[in-house]
TrEMBL record:
The keyword Signal applies. Residues 1-19 form the signal peptide. InterPro entries: DUF4136. Keywords: Signal. Residues 21-171 form the DUF4136 domain. The keyword Signal applies. Pfam families: DUF4136. This is DUF4136 domain-containing protein. It comes from Maribacter orientalis.
């Protein structure tokens, strides 16, 4: 019983705060040929100006580590879209009542939701080949979001999401 409780607690703590990322890309693309990047000039990220700067700083640092350089005439343009939505918790407590005797039976069950809706941020990053004007790579992440985070926490969380997004770039 002790091992079971420990396993459940471990699962709960390790699953909280983790970004989930889905990738899609053009499998005919040679990603090693891309070395420079820039952002679309008319980018509408859906983030506040401060969060947009934090995200772009995280992207610049991570792309620099991947060997990319910022350029006025880049190989790749980056587009960013972000939205926040409420996700319903899947946790319920079930209360059941039943009885029966002879050939007659009955029962009542009620599911009581535990906790409220949580905020989730969806972040989409697109790489568009500047010469072909074609989408070549896309990552969409979902991660927990809290409005009351401090600026330092926001920067740290955005960097963690960017690190997770680019952990599988370039695609193999």
């Amino acid at each position: 019983m002790r091992i079971f409780l420990f396993s459940v607690l471990l699962l709960v703590f390790t699953s909280c705060g983790v970004a989930r990322v889905n990738y899609d890309y053009d499998n005919q693309t040679d990603f090693t040929s891309y070395t420079t990047y820039n952002y679309f000039p008319d980018i509408e990220t859906g983030l506040s100006q401060l969060d947009e700067k934090r995200l772009m700083d995280a992207l610049d640092a991570t792309l620099g580590e991947k060997g990319f350089m910022f350029a006025e005439e880049p190989d790749v343009f980056i587009n960013i879209k972000s939205s926040v939505f409420k996700s319903q918790q899947g946790n319920n407590v079930g209360v059941g009542l039943g009885g029966g005797g002879g050939n007659i039976g009955g029962g009542v069950s009620i599911g009581i939701p535990v906790g409220g809706p949580k905020l989730t941020r969806e972040l989409q990053i697109d790489f568009v080949d500047s010469n072909k004007d074609m989408l070549i790579w896309q990552a969409i992440s979902e991660s927990p979001f809290r409005e009351g985070d401090t600026p330092a926490e926001k920067s740290k969380k955005l960097q963690a999401v960017v690190d997770k997004i680019f952990s599988k770039y370039p695609p193999k």
